[in-house]
Write a structure and sequence with these properties.
It is a single chain. Helix content is 84%, strand content 0%. It has one domain. Helix 1 packs antiparallel against helix 2 and helix 3 runs parallel beside helix 5.
Length: 166
C-alpha cells in the first residue's frame, strides 16, 4: 500500500518537473538557473514526501542527517566508510552536500547542453526534468522502502521473541 502512495508522489513530481522544465526551457540558457533551482526544490520536496510516506520524520539534527544520507543515496553517492564511522552531523553533512553537488553537477551539464536552442530546449527541458525527478525519486523510494522493511523485520522479531517468551 505504501509503495502505491510513493509511486503517486513520484509521478506527481515528475509531471510537475516536466511542466516546469517545458516552461523554463522556452527561455533557453537565460532561464537555466531558475529552472535548476526550482527542480532542486521539487526533488527535495519529493524526497521529503517519500520519507513521510514510509514514516520517517526529520525534526532533529540526527534525523536531518538521515535525510541528507537518503538524498546522497538517491544521487547515487556511496558514503560507505563515512556512514560506518558515524561522524558528527556538523562534519558529515558538508561532506554529503559536497558529494551530492558533484553528482548533481554532472546532471546539470546535461541540462545546460540541451538549452542551446530555446524552442527545442522546452521539449528537452521537460524530458530531462521528468527523468531527473524519476531517477532521484526511484532511488529515494528504494532507500526509504528498504529502511522501512528493516524496521518492520526488527519489530516482528521482537514480537516473536516476546510471544515465545510468555
Amino acid at each position: 500500500m505504501l509503495d502505491t502512495v510513493a509511486e503517486k508522489v513520484i509521478h506527481g513530481a515528475m509531471k510537475m518537473a516536466a511542466a516546469e522544465g517545458a516552461g523554463f526551457g522556452l527561455g533557453g540558457l537565460f532561464t537555466i538557473l531558475p529552472d535548476f533551482s526550482i527542480l532542486a526544490g521539487i526533488t527535495l520536496r519529493t524526497i521529503q514526501k517519500l520519507s513521510l510516506v514510509y514514516g520517517f520524520e526529520y525534526n532533529t539534527d540526527e534525523e536531518m542527517a538521515e535525510l541528507w544520507i537518503a538524498m546522497a543515496s538517491a544521487a547515487g553517492v556511496d558514503l560507505g566508510r563515512e556512514l560506518l564511522e558515524k561522524n558528527v552531523v556538523n562534519r558529515m553533512v558538508p561532506k554529503v552536500i559536497q558529494k551530492i553537488a558533484a553528482k548533481a553537477s554532472a546532471e546539470f551539464v546535461e541540462k545546460w547542453a540541451g538549452r542551446l536552442i530555446p524552442v527545442v530546449s522546452s521539449l528537452i527541458g521537460a524530458t530531462l526534468n521528468y527523468y531527473f525527478v524519476r531517477g532521484w525519486g526511484e532511488r529515494a523510494h528504494a532507500h526509504f522502502r528498504q529502511k522501512h522493511l528493516e524496521i518492520r523485520r526488527k519489530m516482528l522479531h521482537q514480537q516473536a521473541a516476546l510471544t515465545s517468551g510468555s
